[in-house]
Write a structure and sequence with these properties.
The chain has 117 residues and is an all-alpha fold. It has helices at residues 10-40, 46-71, 76-113. The protein starts with 9 loop residues before the first helix and ends with a helix.
Length: 117
């Protein structure tokens, strides 16, 4: 069975790309502001918060890239392949991020309890 092509007008694809670009720019501004505010308020959880913010930023960049790829999909099979690859990479990244954050929390806990027992 032949998959039907996705007949999406070029104007609509262009509009979707511009919308993605604008959203990515807005999120970039948010991440810049959040990063600056964390630097201004040092504390025990600051490094872990910076790490979590960095992971979130990486995830958002991946989501924007994913959206750009979907905008250019020419058939349903390609769209499903793109979606499957994205989900697979996100699950892998989420596991790695959790491992790193857990390690940071354990390290911070060990540092905080040194000499108290």
């Amino acid at each position: 069975m032949i998959e039907p092509k996705l007949e999406v007008p070029a104007e609509l694809r262009d509009l979707a790309e511009k919308t993605i670009d604008q959203a990515e720019k807005a999120f970039g501004m948010f991440f810049d502001a959040a990063s600056k505010s964390m630097t201004a308020m040092p504390g025990t959880g600051t490094e872990i918060s910076k790490q979590a913010l960095s992971f979130t930023e990486q995830n958002m960049k991946a989501a924007f890239e994913h959206a750009r790829k979907l905008v250019h999909a020419t058939d349903l099979q390609e769209a499903m392949r793109i979606q499957s690859e994205f989900l697979r990479s996100q699950f892998t990244n989420a596991g790695e991020h959790m491992r790193q954050i857990t390690g940071s929390v354990m390290s911070a806990t060990n540092d905080a309890t040194k000499g108290k027992f």
